Amino acid sequence: MTPVVRTALPVVLTFVFAFGAGAAGAALLRGDDGAAQPTGVTSPTTAVPTTTIATPKPIPNAQPARRLLPSQARSSFGSLGPGLALAVAPVGRGSIQVFGDRSLRASPGGHAWSTMKIALVAQLVLDRGRVSRLTAVQRGHAKAALTVSDNAAAAAIFEQLKADHGGLEGASAKVTELLQRAGDGATQVSQTTDGNPNAVSTYGQTHWPASAAVRFLRALARGCILGEDGTRYELGLMAGVREERGWGIGAAGYDGDIRVAFKGGWGQEADNSWLVRQLGVVGTGPGAVVIAIVARAPSLAVGQARVTAAAQWLRAHAVTSARAAAGCG
């Protein structure tokens, strides 16, 4: 993706993708729980009230909001085949656009798998009040959960949420409330494994449509959930993802000035098919783009290839321009 240009002239949103193999590919084939558990045990602490987040101020003299993708792009996306969905939106003013498989882009949506770890880390920060109140162990868990998709680290974070909010039901309800604050009034964080013997967590089996996931991450990127400090912290961790750069959003060829912050999720469904997804923010400021791609496939490799194809399609069709910042209401 070319750097976001803060002028009135539109620039083509470009990506260069390459489907990687080697060590990163081998790590991915271990599944979503391949990383080792970090040392240390999180001790429950008293929750700190969440601070009030200020509404970002609009940027003067920016272009009126325009869609990232032209209307004629819909039929083009359909040529990529079934079992694939995309949701995309600017961080600044502009609407969410959705394409592809309705069951993945809208309700009920595919399982969140490890993309829900983004919400877990955000809730942990909210419960502490600010980033500086996270313990060293909690910081280690947050980093491992987001950069190498460590399931043990995410489980430790969720155990802390359970301690803070009265067990599984309370923790799940609190993360659901977080999604609602971001404008997602439909998603309910799962309290069961949803009948999937391959599940590794309850929260990962949450049905999370691509459109709802983009709505949540856009609110996060706007600073509407964690404020400036917390947003910088979490997106900074997501920019450090290590094992997902050979496919999808992570395979983008970008200049050093462009931040690509993202998180993937993948797992085998109860019917032995695979659900593969990525959720990310490309760029910074109001001109940045929030992307959610979800694929249903017969194998992990095929799912990764479909996510990559959707990212390449986005590179070829999306156009962005300078935008006004959007508020949090």
Description:
This protein has 329 residues and is α+β, with helices and mostly antiparallel strands. Helix content is 34%, strand content 13%. The strands form 2 sheets. The chain has a 5-stranded antiparallel beta sheet, with helices on both faces. A two-stranded antiparallel sheet has the order 1-7. Strand 4 and strand 5 form a beta hairpin. Helix 4 packs across helix 6 and helix 5 crosses helix 6.
The major β-sheet equals: 5 strands, antiparallel
Radius of gyration, in Å, reads 18 Å
Provide mean pLDDT, rounded.
Answer: 82
- What structural class do helix, strand and pairing data support? alpha+beta
Main sheet: which strands, in order across?
A: 3-2-6-5-4
What share of residues are in beta strands?
5-15%
Report the uncertain regions: 1-64
Helicity, in percent? 25-40%
Question: Which descriptors would you attach to this protein?
Answer:
329 residues; 34% helix; disordered N terminus; five-stranded antiparallel beta sheet; 10 helices; two-stranded antiparallel ribbon; alpha+beta
Question: Gist?
Answer:
Helices cover 34% and strands 13% of the residues.
Describe the protein's topology.
Elements: E1 11-12, H1 22-29, H2 73-78, E2 84-90, E3 97-100, H3 102-105, H4 117-128, H5 136-147, H6 151-165, H7 168-181, H8 210-221, H9 227-238, E4 260-268, E5 274-282, E6 289-297, H10 300-317, E7 319-320
Antiparallel strand pairs: 1-7, 2-3, 2-6, 4-5, 5-6
Helix pairs in contact: 4-6, 5-6, 6-7
